Amino acid sequence: MKKLNIQTGKGIYLVIDPSDKPEEILFPTLEKLFTFPLSAVQIWDHFGEGQDAVAFTSKVVELAAAYDFPILVNNRWDLLKVKEVDGIHLDSIPSDLSSINAFLDKKHLIGLTVNNDLELIRQAANLGFDYVSFCSVFPTNTTQHCDLVSFDVIREAGKITDMPLFLAGGIKTENLPELQTLPHSGIALISGVMQNQDPVSALQNYFNSLQSK
């Protein structure tokens, strides 16, 4: 299994929307995006009606095979059966905690979306989660289910856990400087890259901005 490609404060965790574009357009775009030194790639659980989730996931894994970043699925435990999937990102902790314990024995990565609840972050750390992602650090249409995260909560999280912390939601190159003082391993992006008319140039701009911090 591949591990997170951690680049403290300068990493990019890319989230892809399977239904965002036709696959014949999306896959060639991903081929180009995967040449960047990404921290991880998550396949969002947002498949189109009739879309083959297993086939889609298998193709993404195939495209990423030559690179050292992991591929994670979102919420869909069934997609862990796809060969070479490296882990799962959960929007919440399952009520059946034994399912997590059995899962962790398999050495998959496991991540969690968090907001302003520090106790949830402590719980994730105690359960052996590999990282958490804060949603949402800025207003955004992509993550409408997320409340805005207090920057003070992120600072406190950096004191109570050594887990990698990713920041997500509404992040643009213009507001990156506002995140500089926060403890984090990188930023998670979806619409800022994938909904841009030129995703490759958009991703390059983010990397350039992070490197100049």
TrEMBL record:
Pathway: Cofactor biosynthesis; thiamine diphosphate biosynthesis. One of its GO terms (biological process) is thiamine biosynthetic process. GO terms for molecular function: thiamine-phosphate diphosphorylase activity. It comes from the Bacteria. Residues 12-193 form the Thiamine phosphate synthase/TenI domain. Keywords: Thiamine biosynthesis. GO terms for cellular component: cytoplasm. This is Thiamine phosphate synthase/TenI domain-containing protein. The lineage of its organism: Bacteria, Pseudomonadati, Bacteroidota, Cytophagia, Cytophagales. Gene3D superfamilies: Aldolase class I. The keyword Nucleotide-binding does not apply. InterPro entries: Aldolase_TIM (IPR013785), ThiamineP_synth_sf (IPR036206), ThiamineP_synth_TenI (IPR022998).
